[in-house]
Amino acid sequence: MSDKKFDYWFGVPRKEIKWYPKIDPAACIGCGLCAVICGRGVYSYDLVSKKPIVAKPFNCLVGCQTCANLCPVGAIEFPPAEVAREAARKNKIFIKVKKMLEEKFAQQMLETAKQYQAQMTRHEKEIREIEKS
Ligand code: SF4
Ligand code: SF4
User: Fold this and answer.
1) What global pTM score does this model have?
2) Nearest CA to ligand 2 atom 3
3) Which residue among 16, 26, 55, 98 is least packed, with the fewest CB closer than 10 Å?
């Protein structure tokens, strides 16, 4: 199961990418940190057994390993990072990333271009004044 808003990753059906956490129940001490910190609702928590459950694995953000990095006993495993990189390559996400980058930073690019233009105008004016003198 997953939430609709996480069904696709750069237009790729999320279920096609095998990226999600696995918990070693023998190592897990049930602290609950993973269940609390994941902002995507991947985990639920069994209050009886005092263990987290990977309830919505495909909500997991491809490439994220935050919960594994924070688990105090290293009980969370992910596939090798290469799985995420390969998903990015295979699905040609960088074409989409480029477009998104341009959209996200369009205003910033415009302002940089204006500043550059103003700087060049000042510079040209200075040169003209030097040439006149
Ligand atoms: S952070 Fe680690 S030890 Fe804590 S509940 Fe999650 S898996 Fe278990
Ligand atoms: S890796 Fe990130 S998104 Fe995936 S379950 Fe852990 S905290 Fe949530």
Assistant:
1) 0.81
2) 60
3) 26
Q: Tokens 């459950």: give the residue.
A: 53
The pLDDT tens digits of the residues spanning 22-64 come to 999 999 999 999 999 999 999 999 999 999 999 999 999 999 9
Phi, psi of 12 (to 5 degrees): -95, 130
Range of the domain at 102: 94-133
- Number of structural domains in the chain: 2
Q: Does residue 73 share a domain with residue 22?
A: yes
Residues in the chain: 133
Structural contact between residues 43 and 34, judged by C-beta atoms closer than 8 angstroms: yes
User: Are 87 and 108 members of one domain?
Assistant: no
Please name which ligand lies nearest the alpha carbon of 73. 1
- Rounded CA-CA distance 133/116 in Å is 26
- Specify the residue with its C-alpha closest to ligand 1, atom 4: 31
